[in-house]
Amino acid sequence: MERADFLILGGGVAGLSAAARLARHGRVILLEAEDALGYHSSGRSVSFSHYGIGTAPVRALTAWSRPFFEAPLGRLFPTLYFADEESLPLLDALGSDMAALTDDIKRVGAAEMQALLPVLRTGPGGAVSGLFDPTGLKLDADLILQGLAREVRAAGGAVLTGRRVTAAEPGWTVRTEAGESFAAPILVNAAGAWADRIAALAGVAPLGLTPMRRTIIVVDPPEGTKIEAWPFALSAARDFYIQPEAGRLLVSPVDEVVDDPCDAQPEEYDVALAADRLEHYTTLRIARIAHRWAGLRTFTEDRVPKAGFAAGAPGFFWLAGQGGYGFQTAPAMAAIAEALITGGPWPKGLAELGVGVEQVAPGRSA
Q: 332, 64 in Cβ contact below 8 A?
């Protein structure tokens, strides 16, 4: 049996971020079920940090985390939120929410939006107003994940892949499919879509997490079109986004399809929906879909990530429900986990942003 001070289940950005923090306080062993880190959600994320998604606590966690993403982990990437006549109230509400955290947002009209994103439909039936944020951040997901793993190993910890847990007993001792055993007094459940299943193995009441499938297609821009300066663009109705990436365009219908914890695959309907939304919101026509994929985004009932010890299960710590904002909130959530597990001070500045223990406490929404 291999022993440590902290045992973390889940090798996505949530688990790795917490592992790097906790490695400052004792030996960490992180177990990932798949053969690669970030295989399911973290590895399929567009890895973007912006204020256009999530609730007020999520935006606060995002704001606190931004200093972590300095170059080369992140680079400035302009962001455009746009609305047609029908969704203008949603754009107004979004602008009000973001204004509480940044002064960089500015309102833009049809001409300015077309200058930013020439293929965007404007005018009657199209976009009539937008919000432009020049401070969006495109994150290097692989660089972040591998860097965190190196931090853990450099501190004397272990990051082990291909270790699917089949049993967990208070104490805490876990066993894997291969028959290995690992033990630590603190067990951090950062298993993403599988977090409730890990809780069941441990005899802990579930949080009621909901995995939701998100689909992305990749298309080629018109030949000869320069897209490098195009922004990440999201509809205020939150039913479409487009982002330039490596000479191609990532497109999503921003779907949220309830699914089981699984190796998510794109469904034909959702692929077709992405293509339809692209042709509805822009003047582009799809000649072919170069690539497609899907990933799971797992939410709590109130869509706020949770961190805290489970009631009646000493040493069992929840770190789950980071939804579609795992990367952009991971530094803050890891600092929260560090504070709660080690008894250290609450992360400086987070309370001033409106996030205290009660906002992220497991079971709060229930």
A: yes
Tell me how crowded residue 89 is: count the other CB atoms within 10 A of its CB: 10
* Statement: residue 365 has pLDDT above 60: no
Q: Given this chain, do its domains 2-43+140-209+302-360 and 78-135+210-299 carry the same CATH topology?
A: no
CB atoms within 10 A of CB 258: 9
Q: Closest by alpha carbon to 171, among 159, 182, 161, 184?
A: 184
| Residue 178 CB contacts under 8 Å (≥ 6 apart), including other chains | 163
Closest CA to 39 of 20, 16, 7, 8: 16
Both tokens of 343, joined, read 């008894």
Give tens-digit pLDDT for 159-202.
999 999 999 999 999 999 999 999 999 999 999 999 999 999 99
CATH architecture assigned to 78-135+210-299:
2-Layer Sandwich (3.30)
Which residue is associated with the tokens 């921003």?
A: 254
State in words which class domain 2-43+140-209+302-360 has: alpha beta
- Distance between CA atoms of 190 and 210, rounded to whole angstroms? 14
Going by C-alpha positions, the residue among 50, 139, 173 that lies closest to residue 101 is: 50
Cβ neighbour number for residue 314 with a 10 Å cutoff: 12
The answer to whether residues 161 and 177 touch, using CB atoms and an 8 Å cutoff, is no
In Å, the largest CA–CA distance within the chain is: 67
pLDDT tens, residue by residue, 10-24: 999 999 999 999 999
Structure confidence at residue 364 (pLDDT) = 60
Decide: residue 9, CB within 10 A, 0-12 exposed, 13-18 middle, 19+ buried.
Answer: buried
| SS3 state at 144 | helix
Q: Which alpha helices (DSSP H) does 86-213 contain, by range?
A: 88-99, 110-116, 141-154, 195-202
